[in-house]
Structures are given as C-alpha cells and as structure tokens.
Amino acid sequence: MDRDGFSRPASLDSAELHEMRQLARGAFLHALERSTIESAFDRHLHYERGILQVGEDLYDLPAFSRIFVVSIGKAANTAVDSLMKRLGGGLGVTGIVCGPTDPGTQVAGFRYYTGGHPVPNSESVKSAEAILRSLDALQDTALAIFLISGGGSSLVEKPIDDAISFEDLLQTYRALVHSGAPIAEINAVRKHLSAVKGGRMALAAAPAHQLSVLISDVPDNTPDSLASGPTMPDHSTIEQCYEVVSKYKLMTALPQSVRELFEHHAILETPKEDEPAFARSRWWTVLSNSSARKSAEEWAAAAGFHVVIDNRCDDWDYRDAADYLLGRVRDLRQSDGRVCLISGGEVTVTVNGQAGIGGRNQQFALYCVTKISGENITVLSAGTDGIDGNSPAAGAVVDGTTMERAAGQSLDVSAALSGFNAFPLLQSLDDAIVTGPTGNNVRDLRVLLAY
Fold first, then answer.
1. pLDDT tens track for 219-265
2. Of 292, 319, 389, 392, whose CB count within 10 A is highest?
3. All domains of the chain, ordered by start, with CATH?
4. Average pLDDT over residues 394-403
C-alpha cells in the first residue's frame, strides 16, 4: 500500500506499457478516422434517384422549387464538398459557405467567405448579411439545408441592431469573454444581440422547409449550443441576459449602443419551440463526441479490454478530472483486470502568469504523470481537431514510466507542469501526439488503460 492508499503492482513491465501506449494511440487514431466528415456522411446521408435520406427523414429533392445550402463553421468547406459529392449536378443547388480558411477549390454555384475565429471579422458580418438576404428570398416550396459545425458563432455574425457597429460588436465580445462568465452565460447574451444566433437564421428561412445537419463540438445534451444554435429553438432568455450583465458588472464595459439596449429594456426575445418557423424544421447530429467515444470503445474492446465510458468530469478543472478518472480506473482494475476507461468532453485549465507551450490535454496528461509513477496505468488525452493550445500537438499519451524516463533525461516534470510548458518535455520523451490539424472538431478524448 503506498502513501495515497492505493495498492500498486510489485514491478512495471516496460514492454507491456509500451504496447499499452501504442494501443491508446491506436484507439485515438481510430476515433479520428471514424470522426471525419466523409465517414459520418457515409453513415448518415444517402442519396439515390432524387431522394435524400438523412437519419429517418426522406427528401424528394426534385420536388422543391429551390435548394439552398448554408455551410458554416470550422468544417464548412469539407462539409459542403461532401454533400455535393453525393448530390452531384443537375439539381441547381446554390449556397453560401463560411469557414475559417480559404477552401482552395470552390463548388460551382456557391459563394465563399472567410470568417474570423475566435472573434468575428468583417467577412463574418458580410457572410451573415448575404445568408440572411438569401434566406429571406426563399418560398414555402424551397428547401434550406444547413451544414453547421463548431466555430460558427464567430465565423458568421451580425448585430441585431444596426446601431451596433462592428467595433461595438468586438468590444462586446471582449467584455463577455474577459468577464469570467461561463460559456453558457456568454452565449445567452450573444444570442440575444445577434441577428443570426439563437434560431434567428431559421426565422429568416421561414416558410421554407429546413434541414440542419450538425457536426457537433458541444456536449451531446446541448445541441442548441453548437455555433450558438442559429437554426434551433433557443432555451436562453432575456432575463438571463440581464442577470449576466448585473452579476459580472458588465454595463460599464459594454459599448454605448449595446448599453442602451439594456438600459431601455429593448432587447428582443429569441424564438422558442412554439415558433411556427420550426414546424417545418428538422435537425440531425451526424457527428459528435459520442461518435469518437464509440469508435475508441470499439478499438479497446477488440484489443481485449473491459471498457467503461464516463463523461462525468466534462468541463471540470484538469486536476479534479484527472484525480477522479484515475480513482475510477484503479477501482475498475480491481475486479475487471485489463480495463479501459474512456471519457469525452473538455477539461479546463486556468493559466497563472506566463504560459509556455502546451494545452489542456497535455497539461492533464502531465498532471497524471505525477500521480501514476510506478503504476501499470496509461493515460491518453488529445483533441480531435489535432490542435492542443499553442502547441503543434493534439495531446499526449503517458504511463507509469514517464516520470522515470523524464528523470533519465534531466527533465523537470514539476517545473513543466507549474509553467504550463508540457509540450517540450512530452515531445522529448516521444509522448506527445502530433497529427496535424484535422479540419474538424468533436471535442477531446481521454483514454485510460490499466491492468
């Protein structure tokens, strides 16, 4: 029994731990492969003889007077390419695409914009205005197809009131982000100040039929958080907006144009579930963190592990999340032998002082190193977008030998941890996971293996 009260194996098997690191990497890479837009569309979208099937819904595309596609978010370019690859030509499909990068090649009949992220730019506003004009022109015999992925919140944006200038918009974003408010409260305010968020894009498209295909980077139970829910009923309220502004003393930090809306109680409510525009709307999540978790589960089960999924620590501080998951995997191995614990979602890291090179996944992994030294436990934490913080890595995979291997190279784990400088150490040990940007994001994945 050690000082933490945990029973540890008498000795480490370095060869088996190396194999466990490879298995953990394999689980993550398998999840990435199954989390591409192309593979998701293969599973959930089918088109044959004019009939488009999405989930359980069937759409007779030639029967619509017009088909207009809006693709927004980090995966906007890939998503529209994948859709049009299946539909082919002959339907006269047109649309607007707004992603964070130049697409390279463009689909005929589509207008392209390069929006700003994590804050809007002028193209964000231009794309929103173009989308709203096009949607307003749709008749009740038309079909609007929305392809929505993470990042759409800033990539496409237009203030609800013309008195709010672009500079005022940016000042409002900065005030909200720096307030210390959680993202749900920030989004409640942003939705009510936006002409496209919180279901208002759906209002513009009415009375057309509407189909939203969601590539989600938000918790599975909050789909209306994706890109701030432009086509879905909004569950936040005006009252919440006033509470947020009061709670975080934001009034003086807001520009005058926005401040006046609050002072005069002139903020309009976002559309709710009883809004008629939603009567002809359908939403299908074709890719999410759940997809990545299930793929990792398949891989681990095929490798002979007893697999448990636990997402309880989503949005926890990285240290609390690590302590919780390590406690669970230790308990599981007592009765189940070779075990794999999978956890999806994201952990939070509050940086104190000057940060080095790293990200939340590598910080989580390096903290685990200090807790599993000498144990037959392997921990992987990585982002499905291939980007972790300001580093070139997606994340890292560590085990009970990492501390010893670091000492062998005179690398200081404690200093790297306190300096938020995990990447250089992990890269030196070949424990960093570098995939390059994936062009997609379904949140983070943590895989813990123990025996």
1. 888 899 999 999 999 999 999 999 999 999 999 999 999 999 999 99
2. 292
3. 14-34+290-450 (3.40.1480.10), 37-158+194-234+270-287 (3.40.50.10180)
4. 97
Q: CA-CA distances (angstroms) from residue 325 to 21, 60, 305, 397?
A: 17, 48, 17, 15
The H or E element that residue 285 is part of is: strand 281-287
Quick one: tokens of 50? Answer: 């004019």
Q: What amino acid occupies position 340?
A: C
pLDDT of residue 353: 82
Q: Tokens 């807001």 label which residue?
A: 254
Q: What is the DSSP string of 188-256?
A: HHHHHTBSSTTTHHHHHHTTSEEEEEEE--S-TT-GGGGGG-TTS-----HHHHHHHHHHTT-GGGS-H
Nearest CA among 174, 173, 153, 287 for reference residue 228: 153
Q: What is the pLDDT of residues 349-396, one digit of tens each?
A: 988 888 899 999 999 999 999 999 999 999 999 999 999 999 999 999
Cα–Cα distance between 24 and 27 in angstroms, integer? Answer: 5
Contact present, 311 and 341 (Cβ < 8 Å):
no
What is the value of pTM for the model shown? 0.86
User: To 5 degrees, how large is the angle CA 174–CA 152–CA 28?
Assistant: 105
H or E element, residue 57: strand 57-60
